[in-house]
């Protein structure tokens, strides 16, 4: 009897899980070749067309501009690349399933990732009648951007304008930069690589957990051969902490020496350099908060202070 009750309970839990998954995807439309309970769009696909992108022919699915794409667990949208209509790669963008939407222009390659099995494939999407890739308007003056979530009086306003102009990163949509979103290790090493001029890695050997198709693959390879990344894995999707950020930048700068910053919560040559170089300060007079995660706004500010001198 006890075994029967246990089996019935397990069955109920499975049914509830499946019901929840289907309910979550109920208002979404299928995005082929994925089932709608795993990946959906807020609007139905209006057609498709063959296009040559990066030297290969791909099938691009067409959706109305402003459409939202959402992956349901255990899947997620891991990386999104933006291309022009002529097939030129513009940048990778941060895709937020709750905030991001399909821009009116450009071609987007979305990579789908499974928590259990890793990469599950990718899709190509574009807005109906899309022309060239959408990029935020270049700022007319320092501190002014085309992003509605970057106010001119915020500390990161000028760094954001600089980062977009230099091609270091783009917005999360045509009108948003999402400065308060957490920055991952893969993103910061890519931003740093681009700020350094996007040098071609001399060694194509990648760390064990880096897929060569990922946007950060070259950046990680470059970082590894220049002593900025060590070990057998990079953990690109992990959040970047304040300590990690200044450590990457300090190593890129050549590990210069600096006077001790004398923080109670960390003793680090990288932190000493960051404080002396004006890259960042402590979170208080006595603390640096090394484990605090960094946002997109903070990372571009660190890079701006180091590279835009």
How would you describe this protein?
This protein has 309 residues and is an alpha+beta fold. The chain folds into two domains: 23-127, no CATH class; 157-307, no CATH class. It contains seven helices and nine strands, in the order αβββββββββαααααα.
User: Uncertain regions: pLDDT < 50 for 5+ in a row?
Assistant: 1-25, 131-142
> How many strands appear in the DSSP assignment?
9
Strand content: 15-25%
Radius of gyration: 22 Å
Which strand order does the major sheet show?
Answer: 3-4-9-8-6-7
- Quote the distance from N terminus to C terminus: 75 Å
Structural class: alpha+beta
Please give the count of helices: 7
Task: Spell the H/E element sequence.
Answer: HEEEEEEEEEHHHHHH
Largest sheet: 6 strands, mixed
Shape, please? globular
Average pLDDT rating: 82
Q: Count structural domains.
A: 2
In helices, the fraction of residues equals 25-40%
Quick overview of this protein structure:
The protein is an alpha+beta fold. The chain has helices at 2-24, 157-165, 185-195, 217-225, 242-252, 269-276, 296-307; strands at residues 29-30, 39-41, 47-53, 56-63, 69-71, 75-83, 89-93, 107-114, 118-127. A six-stranded mixed beta sheet has the order 3-4-9-8-6-7, with no helix packed on it. A three-stranded antiparallel beta sheet has the order 1-2-5, with no helix packed on it.
């Amino acid at each position: 009897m006890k075994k029967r009750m246990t089996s019935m309970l397990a069955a109920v839990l499975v049914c509830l899980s499946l019901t929840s998954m289907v309910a979550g995807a109920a208002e979404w439309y299928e995005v082929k070749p994925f089932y709608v309970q795993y990946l959906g769009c807020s609007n139905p696909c209006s057609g498709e067309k063959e296009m040559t992108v990066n030297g290969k022919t791909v099938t691009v699915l067409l959706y109305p501009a402003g459409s939202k794409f959402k992956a349901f667990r255990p899947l997620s949208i891991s990386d999104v690349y933006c291309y022009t209509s002529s097939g030129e790669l513009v940048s990778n963008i941060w895709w937020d399933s709750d905030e991001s939407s399909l821009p009116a222009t450009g071609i987007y390659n979305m990579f789908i990732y499974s928590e259990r099995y890793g990469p599950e494939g990718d899709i190509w999407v574009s807005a109906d009648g899309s022309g060239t890739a959408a990029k935020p308007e270049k700022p007319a003056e320092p501190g002014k951007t085309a992003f509605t979530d970057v106010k001119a009086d915020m500390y990161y306003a000028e760094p954001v304008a600089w980062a977009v102009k230099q091609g270091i990163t783009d917005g999360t949509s045509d009108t948003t930069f999402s400065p308060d979103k957490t920055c991952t290790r893969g993103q910061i090493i890519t931003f740093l690589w681009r700020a350094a001029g996007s040098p071609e890695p001399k060694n194509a050997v990648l760390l064990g957990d880096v897929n060569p198709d990922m946007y950060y693959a070259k950046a990680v390879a470059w970082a590894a051969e220049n002593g900025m990344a060590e070990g057998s894995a990079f953990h690109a999707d992990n959040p970047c902490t304040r300590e990690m950020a200044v450590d990457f930048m300090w190593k890129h700068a050549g590990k210069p020496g600096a006077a001790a910053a004398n923080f109670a919560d960390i003793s680090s040559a990288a932190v000493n350099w960051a404080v002396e170089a004006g890259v960042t300060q402590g979170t208080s007079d006595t603390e640096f908060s090394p484990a605090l995660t960094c946002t997109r706004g903070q990372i571009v500010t660190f890079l701006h202070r180091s590279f835009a001198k």
